[in-house]
C-alpha cells in the first residue's frame, strides 16, 4: 500500500514538474512570438511607405503634382483601405496589416493638409506617416517617408501615436539632412527632442 502511494506521489510530482516546464516554455514563447509579429508588421509598414512613394511618383507623372491619400487609394496605386473619414481628424487615414497611414501636403502658409482641399498647395512636397493601430500589439515604431525618398523611424516608446484618434502631426518629423521642408516647425514641446533614425536602404 505504501509502495503504491509512494509511486503515485512520485508520478504526481513528475507530472507537476512537466506542467511547470510547459508553462515556463509557453511564457517564454508568447513574448517571443509577439515580438516576431511586431517586427513583421513594422517591416510591412516600411514596405507600405515604399509603395506609397512609388504611388506618389506615378501620381505626379499623371497629374504633375503630389496626391492626397484619397487620390492614391482611388487610383488603385496602393492596396489599402481608407477608414471612414472623420472631420475632427487632421487627415484622412487608411489601414494596412496593423498599421495606419496618413499623407500630408503643405499649403502656401506652411500648414500641413491631410485631406483634399481647394486651397493652393505646394505641388512638389508630401510627407506620410505610418504608426501602429494598437501600440505594443500591432507595432511600436512610427515611420515617415517624404518626397525626398528618405524613410526614417522613431521608437514611439510611450505609445504617443496609437490608433486612428492619435495621429502624428504633419510637422512631427524634421527634414532630413540636406532637405528643406515647407512646413512650419513648432518652437516648443517634446517634438524638438524626438530623434529619427534612417531605415537602411531607404534612399
Protein architecture, described:
Helices cover 33% and strands 16% of the residues. With 203 residues, it is α+β, with helices and mostly antiparallel strands. Strands 1, 2, 3, 4, 5, 6, 7 and 8 form an 8-stranded antiparallel beta sheet that branches. The termini are far apart.
Question: What are the main properties of this structure?
Answer:
globular, 16% strand, 33% helix, single chain, eight-stranded antiparallel β-sheet
What does this entry show, briefly?
The chain is α+β, with helices and mostly antiparallel strands and 203 residues long.
Number of helices: 2
CA gyration radius, whole angstroms: 24 Å
What is the helical fraction, as a range of percent? Answer: 25-40%
Distance between the termini: 77 Å
Which parts are unreliable, with pLDDT below 50 for 5 consecutive residues or more?
A: 17-31
Q: Order of helices and strands, N to C? A: HHEEEEEEEE
- Helix/strand/pairing category: alpha+beta
What is the approximate shape?
A: globular
Q: The biggest beta sheet, please?
A: 8 strands, antiparallel
User: Which range does the strand content fall in?
Assistant: 15-25%
Q: Please count the beta strands (DSSP E, at least 2 residues each).
A: 8
> What is the average of the pLDDT values?
81
SSE diagram, text form:
Elements (H helix, E strand, L loop, with lengths): L1 H62 L5 H6 L6 E2 L10 E4 L2 E8 L5 E2 L13 E6 L9 E5 L4 E4 L42 E2 L5
Antiparallel strand pairs: 1-2, 2-3, 3-4, 3-5, 5-6, 6-7, 7-8
Amino acid at each position: 500500500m505504501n509502495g503504491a502511494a509512494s509511486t503515485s506521489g512520485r508520478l504526481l510530482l513528475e507530472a507537476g514538474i512537466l506542467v511547470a516546464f510547459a508553462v515556463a516554455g509557453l511564457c517564454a514563447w508568447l513574448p517571443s512570438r509577439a515580438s516576431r509579429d511586431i517586427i513583421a508588421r513594422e517591416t510591412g509598414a516600411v514596405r507600405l511607405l515604399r509603395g506609397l512613394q512609388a504611388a506618389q511618383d506615378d501620381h505626379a507623372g499623371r497629374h504633375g503634382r503630389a496626391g492626397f491619400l484619397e487620390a492614391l487609394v482611388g487610383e488603385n496605386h496602393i492596396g489599402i483601405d481608407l477608414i471612414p473619414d472623420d472631420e475632427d481628424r487632421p487627415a484622412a487615414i487608411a489601414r494596412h496589416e496593423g498599421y495606419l497611414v496618413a499623407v500630408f501636403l503643405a499649403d502656401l502658409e506652411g500648414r500641413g493638409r491631410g485631406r483634399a482641399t481647394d486651397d493652393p498647395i505646394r505641388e512638389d512636397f508630401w510627407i506620410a506617416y505610418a504608426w501602429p493601430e494598437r501600440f505594443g500589439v500591432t507595432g511600436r515604431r512610427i515611420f515617415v517617408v517624404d518626397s525626398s525618398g528618405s524613410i526614417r523611424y522613431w521608437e514611439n516608446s510611450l505609445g504617443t501615436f496609437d490608433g486612428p484618434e492619435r495621429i502624428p502631426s504633419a510637422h512631427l518629423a524634421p527634414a532630413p539632412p540636406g532637405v528643406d521642408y515647407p512646413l512650419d516647425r513648432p518652437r516648443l514641446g517634446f517634438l524638438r527632442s524626438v530623434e529619427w533614425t534612417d531605415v537602411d536602404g531607404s534612399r
